[in-house]
Amino acid sequence: MKKNITIIVLALIFLAPDFSLAATKQEIKTEIQARREAIKLKVQKRQEERKANLETRKAELKTAQDEKMKLRQEFKTKLTEERCARIQERVDSKIALFEEKKKSHAAVYENIKKRISAVIEKASAKGYDTAELKSDLTVLEEKIATFTNDYASYLSKIKGSKNFTCGHSEGDFKGELVEARALLKTVHTDAQDIRNYVKNTIKPAIKALKDQKVESNTDTDTKTIK
User: Fold this and answer.
1) Cα–Cα dist 224/213, whole Å
2) Are strands 222-223 and 214-215 parallel, antiparallel or unpaired?
3) In this structure, how many other beta carbons lie within 10 angstroms of the beta carbon of residue 186?
4) C-alpha span between 114 and 105 (Å, rounded)
């Protein structure tokens, strides 16, 4: 009888549900849901920021255009040939400088994107949920594209300002510089936005990815990315 009881107890032990495993799976399910909610909140926040940035840019452009018209009215005297030549020389020098900086920025940003993509690829191969980091990378790519377009607009405006030197008034040229400075300010804002985004969003997302719990392919234990 005692032997039968022992057998029954052992059977119950081995056949009992693995509540520790169920809890682990529930933790993973809860964590996945939390990540999805975090992505939704991020998307909403980005939409609000995008709208606010657009309004700010419109206001800055309007201010620059108003100042441009004012300068044209105040400085109507035509530039002398000597002054025109000096101005064009300075403009050419500035164009060369910013063309070189453009290459440098492009190389840095391309390297950042490649490194993040490598992290995503490695983590995905090991079964980690990379949806949030992929979403963040997409936003980063959009920010870099915005920077690139704004940079191109600035260079175009600077190059175009040479057309308002010889044969034009000083007010015409200064007016073009006002718009160029407004565009350059936007470029600096774009660059700062990218730096802040990498620091405050991308890096924490990578850390969160490393702290994830996922089911092992070989057993029911959980593991963290190395």
Assistant:
1) 6
2) antiparallel
3) 21
4) 14
- Nearest 10 degrees: CA dihedral of 55, 56, 60, 66? 40
Which DSSP string do the residues of 31-53 spell out, in sequence order? HHHHHHHHHHHHHHHHHHHHHHH
Q: How many residues does the chain have?
A: 226
**Is this model's pTM higher than 0.90 or not?**
no
Query: Which pLDDT tens digit goes with each residue over 174-197?
Result: 888 899 999 999 999 999 999 999
Q: Which token pair is 73?
A: 């009215």
The C-alpha torsion from 58 through 59 and 65 to 68, rounded to 10°, is: -140
DSSP run (H or E) holding 222: strand 222-223
Lowest-pLDDT range of 3-12, 69-78, 167-176: 3-12
Here the tokens at position 30 are: 């809860």
Looking up tokens 């840095």, which residue turns up? 108
CA distance 179 to 145: 21
Quick: pLDDT tens for 19-28.
344 446 666 6
Do 182 and 68 contact (CB within 8 A), yes or no? Answer: no
Cβ–Cβ under 8 Å, residues 105 and 151? yes
Could you tell me if 168 and 71 are in contact, meaning their C-beta atoms sit under 8 angstroms apart?
Answer: no
Q: Distance between alpha carbon 195 and the CA centroid of its chain, in Å?
A: 8
List the Cα angle 204/207/213 in 5-degree steps. Answer: 130
Report how far residue 111's alpha carbon sits from residue 144's, in angstroms, rounded to the nearest whole number.
12
For 128-138, write each residue's pLDDT tens digit.
889 889 999 99
